[in-house]
Amino acid sequence: MKATEVPEIAGAYLFEPTPYADERGFFCRTFDADVVRSVGLDPDAFVQDSVSRSVRGVLRGLHLRSGAGEAKLVRCSYGRIFDVVVDLRTDSPTYRNRAFFELSGETQLTLYIPAGCAHGFQALTETADTSYRIDRPHDPAEDVTIAFDDPELAIPWPLPVTSMSQRDLEAPRLAKVLQNMES
Predict the structure, then answer these.
(1) What is the mean pLDDT of residues 47-58?
(2) 13, 112, 132, 138: which one is catalytic?
(3) What is the pTM of this model?
(4) 119 part of the active site
(5) Is 132 assigned a catalytic role?
(6) Beta bridge partners of 110
């Protein structure tokens, strides 16, 4: 497994495993504490694992947490997703930068997203399972959502949206979210 910095988002990393494939399928290590530690992250900081299943066209996000934020490792364990990260850390050299990734069950790439970055994704296959490893317990009172179609972000979602949560549909634009976070 190797770790590569994401140039568009300071402190973000892609962890690329080496799947071993044969006639049975494949095997690969999806988390390695030593590799995580090698880029300055604490592998013991992650306290919750979650998984979501989405169907083609489903869009989830853009989400982040207020307060101390939430760092996470994201991996598509089955299918394919179009994954988006937006840096909203005002003290970051990559503030307001966006980065796009295709994560898939085939590659098993894992994306590390630092606290203070918004995250969202769209399922590209009939079924897409997305796994999350987060660094603090989820508190719904700290949930922040940004409009997926905010023209300021101009995210090139690859498919028409087939479904999303009511919360995501009603999300405010980035300018309003930033204004609320400053107050």
Answers:
(1) 96
(2) 132
(3) 0.94
(4) no
(5) yes
(6) 15, 75
